[in-house]
Amino acid sequence: DQGVLLKTLEEPHPHRVIVLTTPSLNPFVVLPTVVSRCQRLFFHPVPAPEIENLLVAHGVEPRRAKLVAELSSGRPGWALRRAKDASVIELHDTWTRRLEEVFGAPADVPLHVAAELDSEQLDWRRSEGDEEDPALFAMASWQVELRSRMVAASGREQGRWARLLELSYDTLGYLEQNVSPRLALETFLLECRKVS
Asked: Is the whole model's pTM more than 0.90, yes or no?
């Protein structure tokens, strides 16, 4: 309970240091009152090639290691825990297919995908489980796909994919702030829709 933690942070033991880690400062993850009583230190994500090498060293098949490293968002611990979990690849494939459905589709398709993902995120927020935020996982999957398409393209087409990839990072930033997740996802997916 973060309320109990808040009391500890308000009256800390004078000779102790408390270290809290979180993947997100989203108010649905960490109470703003907790964040306001902490000193922030930012740890930069570990580059995907380093995580990929780590996974291969732990016996993960190289192609799978590359994909899991890209999905990990720079978190080697997450990558090690999820490397042999078949559902990670299945979920990635599902969200990649959903993104592909949006390209060139009528406006109701991206709005429906955004609503579905927003609903899943709302369920996740209500749960107390260890599972990852579905919106962040979907965005990571979409970034892998967009990056792949950008690298494979050339000229103006490459620029379009690069713009969507950049927009995906902006969307992640909005999800970390106090922006409506559904609105952020709708905006991103409606831009993706313009690609045919």
From this structure: no
Q: Cβ-count burial of 54 within 10 angstroms (0-12 exposed, 13-18 middle, 19+ buried)?
A: middle
Report the range of poorest mean pLDDT among 105-109, 158-162, 192-196: 192-196
CA-CA distances (angstroms) from residue 176 to 67, 79, 99? 24, 21, 21
Q: Which amino acid is at 59?
A: G
Closest Cα to residue 139, out of 178, 192, 87? 192
